[in-house]
Specification:
By secondary structure, the chain is an alpha/beta fold. 33% of the residues lie in helices and 20% in strands. The strands form three sheets. Strands 1-2-3-4-5 form a five-stranded mixed beta sheet. It has a five-stranded parallel beta sheet with strand order 9-8-10-11-12, with helices on one face. A two-stranded antiparallel ribbon has the order 6-7.
Length: 275
């Protein structure tokens, strides 16, 4: 309830504050719960605790807010669950060929609430089922999801992901797309090299395992084909954002190359380094 307030007295309560700005602890207005789970994302956790370490921050929220469970959602990296006195447990994100972000956090919270609060599953199982459901919802944003959760593929990106960002910046729109992509990738913890934007920086060396995100707007067809045909011999993934050419390029896609017409999907696929 972002525009109002409610005093809740529950057997099981799931609280998702959904704000970075002075999120109110669940119990501050007199609300009660025999079992309380608090769901946050990494940014909200940092705003509440001023801690960058998810495990330490989750423990502090658990202690100060009287929660039995704290779940910290970490975008493309999955989620962390602290339940009782058990060590923090990692829940992976699950692969989706498209990433539709609107409502994905709400879906996670709702599915977790159902399995934990209604079916009395443990928090680890409830969070894992929520993560699987989000992957299906991201691919096809409809509820309920219409496919099995058992076939979902977990992704395990490195905490620090190195990404080579490629494209043209010879118009204002193309430069903006590159700058926005770099900003969003860095926001998700990636180390980004973009020679087109960093012409003054001659040191653009990165480790060997690097994903490449290529924004195809303005890329000549022959240059694009050269990049695509070089992929099979490469160790690393190439993600191509081709908003106006994706269908015509799809036939060339293989297990180290993916083509998408969606910006959010391109960002997540680059972080995952997976096609």
């Amino acid at each position: 309830m972002l525009e109002g307030d409610a005093i809740v007295d529950a057997e099981y309560a799931v609280y998702d504050p959904q704000t970075l700005y002075f999120p109110e602890p669940y119990r501050d207005n007199g609300s009660k719960a025999r079992q309380l789970a608090i769901l946050l994302n990494r940014a909200e956790l940092r705003a509440i605790t001023r801690k960058s370490n998810i495990g330490h921050g989750a423990r502090e929220v658990q202690r100060t807010q009287g929660a039995q469970v704290v779940v910290v959602k970490d975008g493309p990296y999955g989620a962390w669950v602290v339940e009782g006195k058990m060590p923090p447990h990692f829940i992976p994100a699950y692969y989706s060929s498209k990433v539709f972000k609107i409502g994905s956090g709400d879906v996670f919270s709702a599915i977790f609430s159902f399995y934990w609060g209604e079916e009395n599953r443990c928090a680890l199982e409830a969070a894992d089922l929520a993560s699987r459901t989000v992957s299906q919802y991201s691919t096809k944003p409809m509820l309920p999801v219409d496919s099995s959760l058992e076939g979902c593929t977990p992704v395990f990106p490195r905490t620090t992901k190195h990404i080579f960002l490629n494209g043209y910046a010879n118009t204002l729109g193309r430069r903006y797309s590159l700058e926005e992509a770099r900003h969003r990738l860095e926001e998700l913890g990636a180390v980004v090299s973009c020679p087109v934007l960093d012409r003054h920086n001659h040191d653009i060396s990165l480790p060997g395992e690097v994903s490449e995100l290529l924004i195809a707007d303005g890329f000549p067809d022959d240059a694009l084909q050269d990049r695509m045909t070089a992929v099979p011999g490469r160790q690393n993934a190439l993600i191509i954002l081709a908003e106006d050419r994706a269908p015509s390029l799809q036939e060339a896609a293989d297990n180290r190359l993916v083509i998408t017409d969606d910006f959010s999907s391109a960002i997540y696929l680059a972080i995952w380094g997976k096609c």
